[in-house]
Amino acid sequence: MKIGIDLISFHTPSYVLDLRTLAEKRGVDPDKFVIGIGQERMAVVPPDQDIVTLAANAALPLLDKAGRDNIELVIFATESGVDQSKAAACFCQGLLQLPSACRCIEVKEACYGATASLRMAAAMVAARPHTRALVLAADIARYDLASPGEPTQGAGAVAMLVSAHPRVLALDPETGFYTEDIMDFWRPNYRDEALVDGKYSTRMYLTTLLEAWKNYKAASGRALLADHAHFCFHLPFTKIAYKSFERLCKAEGVPLPSKEELDRLLEPALLYNRQTGNTYAACVYEALASLLDNAPGQLDHQRIGLFSYGSGCMAEFFSGVVQKGYRQHLFTDAHRAMLDSRTPVTYRQYEDIFNYGVPKDGADHVFAPYRGGPFRLAGIKDHKRRYEAK
Q1: Which of 102, 106, 109, 234 is catalytic?
Q2: pLDDT tens for residues 47-105?
Q3: How many domains is the chain partitioned into structurally?
Q4: Would you give the distance in Å from CA 242 to the centre of its chain?
Q5: Which end of the chain is more exposed for a tag (fewer CB within 10 A), N or C?
Q6: What CATH number is associated with residue 185?
C-alpha cells in the first residue's frame, strides 16, 4: 500500500523586500546576497499575519479541492509558536472548519519538525488507511537587523494532505536519520530573533547530511545519481543546495556533473525559496512544491531525494516517487500568481513592520487589514488571539 502526499499547497505573505534594496542600505555589494547566498527577495509579514494565518491560507485551497472528511490528525510544525500551551493546529482546526473528531498537535525541532510530522502522519494513515492527515508547516524566519542572518529572513507555509493511494508523491519506507546535541542555532523564549553561529551551522548541516545519506543508502541500497532524478534540500539559503550535492558526490566518489546537469537536478526546487527567503520548517517542502511546479519535464514515476535538517540538531534523508498524473493535482498557477502579485516594500516600510511586531504588553489591540490570504489576525483581546476570515 502506498502512503504519501496526496496534495501540497504553498503560501507566503503578500509583501516582499528586494534584497538589492537591503544591500544598498547595508552598504554591501548586492551580489553578496543574489549570487553569494543565492537569494533575491525576502517575504515581509504584516502585523495581521502570523504562522496560524499563513498555514490556514496554505491549507484552504487543498481542503476546498479534496474536502474535509476523514481528516483525523492535524500536525502543525513550527519554531515560531504563538502560544506556550495551545497548539497552533487547534487554531487552524477552527478556522478551516475541520472535523471535531480530529487530533491536533504542534511539533518542534527547528526546521526538521515538518519531516517528523510527515512521518507521524504517514504512520497513522498506514494504521488506518481510510483516514487522512493534514500536515502544516509555517514559520517566520527573523534575525536582528543588520546581523549576518538578516538577508536570509523570510516567511511561508506549506500544507500537505497525507493519505493512502496518494496522487502526488508516494513516500519510500527507507530513510536515514542522525541526531546530535549541539548549539548551532537557537531562540530562547525571551527573544523574538533567533541566534545562530552561521559557519558552525553550515558545517553541521553538511556533516549530518553525509551521516543521514549513509544511513539511507544502507537501508535502501540506492545510488546517488542512478536512483534519484532530482533533489530537494532544506534551504536556509539556496546556495547550500549546490554545496550539499557537491559534498554527496565527493563522499560517493562520483564525478560532479556538469553545470547544466547540476542545474537540471537542483534548480527547479530553488525557485520559490529565492523569492521568499528561509521558511524554516516549511523549507524542504516549499522546495518540493517548487520542483513539482517548475520541473521542465514530466516527473511521473521518478524518485526524488529529500534532505531535512533542523538545528540543534536532527537530520533525515528520505525519498519518494512522483505519481502518474501528478500535474493535474498541483496548484501551480495559484502559486505563481501569488508570488507575482506581491507588493514590494521600501526599506523604511520593512524596518517599521519589523519593529512593530505583535505587541506583548498584555493590552488589547486591533490590527488594520493588510493584503493577504483568506484569513487574518484581527487583534488581541483579554490575552486571546482573535482570528477571522476576510
Answers
A1: 234
A2: 999 999 999 999 999 999 999 999 999 999 999 999 999 999 999 999 999 999 999 99
A3: 1
A4: 18
A5: N
A6: 3.40.47.10
